[in-house]
């Protein structure tokens, strides 16, 4: 499905946060391969029946990565977004979303954020983030990507100060805190596992859940199942991500994980829609975003009621 904003196509919708109660989603997108900036957009999910939809720009001129949405007691929404800079640094920007108006409320800056991938509220003030590598320079990338190091980590921001909470992760990516069940799930992309920690004791050894590919962003359904976008071939993803020879496409895979096991919801070679990084559902449809592809992939058969927000959200209405 084509997505435009101010008449221009939106490419590289890497992450999404669903506001099921309002029937909308916030999109985080920028075209990495073109080297252009992108932004944050608001999508009316009632428009998914159309072959092309127009999203409302919320913030432009950004290179955003992971986002999270939180419903506040006064009915407004708080939004966190990782913002990457050309110089290799990154910040976490906090916004208030009232209707289609986004108001900037503050910036968190720290050297620990330079490789930040995803972000998630713990409560109204504290939030977690993941870092794919343990350092900012290319040496850290080579050590992990080529030499097999595991220096990714989960960080905690409290009183606007960042610190490492959990270390030793092979490319820490998506994360989903679940305080109700004292659980924090982290995607370890290069380990092909989900790491499940206790929020009350994050230093305790995690439970490891093997998944069929490198996990990226995570969303959760009301029945407790996790939706996870997977990268079946890191090598093919790298060729595709950087536009190298042989990288015309990268496989797309989406799975749902629950007590009964793992269910593959989508498995494609990438020629229709490459390199999925996030999936959520709305009214029985699976909505898939990609780090490189234009627009979104909409499938009629998906898990029902998933949400990209850390805070509980009402399930969507039945079609």
UniProtKB/TrEMBL annotation:
InterPro entries: 6-blade_b-propeller_TolB-like, Serum_paraoxonase/arylesterase. This is Uncharacterized protein. The lineage of its organism: Bacteria, Pseudomonadati, Pseudomonadota, Alphaproteobacteria, Rhodospirillales.
């Amino acid at each position: 499905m084509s997505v435009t904003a101010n008449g221009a196509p939106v490419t590289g919708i890497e992450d999404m946060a669903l506001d099921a109660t309002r029937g909308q989603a916030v999109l985080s997108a920028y075209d990495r391969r073109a080297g252009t900036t992108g932004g944050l957009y608001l999508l009316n999910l009632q428009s998914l029946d159309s072959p092309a939809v127009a999203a409302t720009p919320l913030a432009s001129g950004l290179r955003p990565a992971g986002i999270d949405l939180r419903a506040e007691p006064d009915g407004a929404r708080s939004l966190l977004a990782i913002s990457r800079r050309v110089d290799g640094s990154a910040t976490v920007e906090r916004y208030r979303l009232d209707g289609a108006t986004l108001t900037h409320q503050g910036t968190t800056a720290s050297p620990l954020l330079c490789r930040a991938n995803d972000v998630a509220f713990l409560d109204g003030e504290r939030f977690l983030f993941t870092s794919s590598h343990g350092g900012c320079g290319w040496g850290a990338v080579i050590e992990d990507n080529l030499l097999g190091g595991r220096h990714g980590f989960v960080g905690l921001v409290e009183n606007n100060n960042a610190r490492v909470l959990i270390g030793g992760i092979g490319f820490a990516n998506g994360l989903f805190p679940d305080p109700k069940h004292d659980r924090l799930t982290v995607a370890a992309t290069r380990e092909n596992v989900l790491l499940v920690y206790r929020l009350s004791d994050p230093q305790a050894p995690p439970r490891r859940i093997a998944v069929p590919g490198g996990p990226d962003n995570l969303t959760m359904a009301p029945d407790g199942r996790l939706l996870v976008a997977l990268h079946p071939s890191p090598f093919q993803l790298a060729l595709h991500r950087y536009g190298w020879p042989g990288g015309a496409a990268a496989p797309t895979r989406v799975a749902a994980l629950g007590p009964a096991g793992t269910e593959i919801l989508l498995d494609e070679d990438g020629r229709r829609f490459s390199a999925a990084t996030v999936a959520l559902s709305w009214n029985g449809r699976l909505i898939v975003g990609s780090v490189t592809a234009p627009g979104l992939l909409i499938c009629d058969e998906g898990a029902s009621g998933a949400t990209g927000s850390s805070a509980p959200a009402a399930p969507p209405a039945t079609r």
